């Protein structure tokens, strides 16, 4: 019987919880994992999640600058000299680039997950595809869904995203699953608001902050469910790359 557990914030992660055969899926709906999904959909070569702006600048100093794009925020505002991580703002900017992404929560959660057997990156935009691909890798391991949270606090949008993922997993698998209490609660919460994703995001504390910054359209964009066929995963404990469904991917340049 497969086991699914939800961690309510990235601070619950530690190497002990990741030991053994554990598959991890990371969520930061507002906005890192939505940004990663969108950047890869728009044709980025890779996304490199970093812990902070200083690490991002160090990578650029050591590499061929033209092929890299600095993207990042801290506490919701763009880092000076970086592109905004709001997904819609990346359209037309990331094609054929290695995106170095620094965010307050999501990129830290991804970096802290790399000691597991395999790490996927999911958002509302692509959860169904990630669930489908995870099942191809699944060999009766424990699945840990990591909600990044917000600066040490639980947030509702990642919890909703984890519930959406569990629901998508159930739709595609006839296996018996054992849910922890947190996984059960996430799934039930999603089902209770299955058609209200925009409302959930707008009502969250991070959503309220982003709306004060004028990012209403970004919230609407990332509240869409299962519109992208991109499946991001961590490679070599450093890069996030995409499993691509070319037939359905269509135009990825983001220039239209």
- Strand adjacency order, main sheet: 7-2-8-1-9
Number of strand elements? 11
The third-level CATH topology is putative 2-phosphosulfolactate phosphatase
Overall number of structural domains: 1
Supply the CATH superfamily name.
ComB-like
Name of the top-level CATH class? Alpha Beta
Compute the gyration radius: what is it?
Answer: 17 Å
Q: Which strand-content bin applies to the residues?
A: 15-25%
Spatial gap, N to C terminus: 46 Å
CATH architecture: Alpha-Beta Complex
Largest sheet: 5 strands, parallel
Overall pLDDT metric: 90
Secondary-structure element pattern, one letter each: EHEHEHEEEHEHEHEHHHHEEH
What overall form do the CA principal axes indicate? globular
SS element count, helices: 11
The percent of residues in helical segments reads 25-40%
The class by helix and strand makeup works out as alpha/beta
Q: Report the oligomer.
A: single chain
* Uncertain residue ranges: 245-256
EC number: 3.1.3.71
Family: Belongs to the ComB family.
Protein name: Probable 2-phosphosulfolactate phosphatase
Keywords: Hydrolase, Magnesium
Key traits:
256 residues; alpha/beta; putative 2-phosphosulfolactate phosphatase; 5-stranded parallel sheet; 4-stranded mixed sheet; 11 helices; 21% strand; globular; ComB-like_sf; Probable 2-phosphosulfolactate phosphatase; magnesium; EC 3.1.3.71
């Amino acid at each position: 019987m497969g086991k699914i557990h939800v961690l309510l914030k990235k601070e619950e992660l530690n190497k002990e919880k990741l030991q053994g055969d554990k598959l991890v899926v990371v969520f930061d709906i507002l906005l890192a994992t939505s940004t990663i999904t969108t950047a890869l959909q728009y044709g980025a070569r890779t996304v490199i999640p970093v812990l902070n702006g200083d690490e991002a600048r160090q990578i650029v100093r050591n590499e061929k600058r033209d092929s890299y794009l600095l993207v990042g925020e801290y506490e919701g505002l763009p880092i000076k000299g970086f592109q905004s991580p709001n997904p819609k703002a990346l359209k037309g900017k990331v094609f054929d680039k290695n995106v170095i992404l620094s965010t307050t929560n999501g990129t830290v959660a991804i970096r802290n997950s790399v000691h597991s057997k395999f790490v996927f990156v999911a958002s509302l935009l692509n959860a169904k595809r990630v669930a489908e691909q995870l099942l191809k890798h699944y060999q009766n391991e424990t699945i840990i869904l990591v909600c990044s949270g917000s600066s040490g606090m639980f947030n509702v949008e990642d919890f909703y995203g984890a519930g959406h993922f569990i629901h998508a997993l159930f739709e595609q698998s006839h296996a018996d699953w054992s849910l922890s209490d947190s996984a059960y609660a996430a799934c039930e919460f999603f089902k209770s608001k299955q058609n209200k994703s925009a409302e959930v995001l707008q009502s969250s504390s991070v959503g309220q902050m982003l709306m004060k910054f004028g990012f209403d359209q970004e919230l609407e964009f990332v509240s869409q469910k299962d519109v992208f066929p991109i499946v991001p995963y961590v490679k070599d404990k450093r890069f996030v790359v995409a499993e691509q469904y070319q037939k359905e991917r269509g135009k990825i340049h983001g220039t239209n």
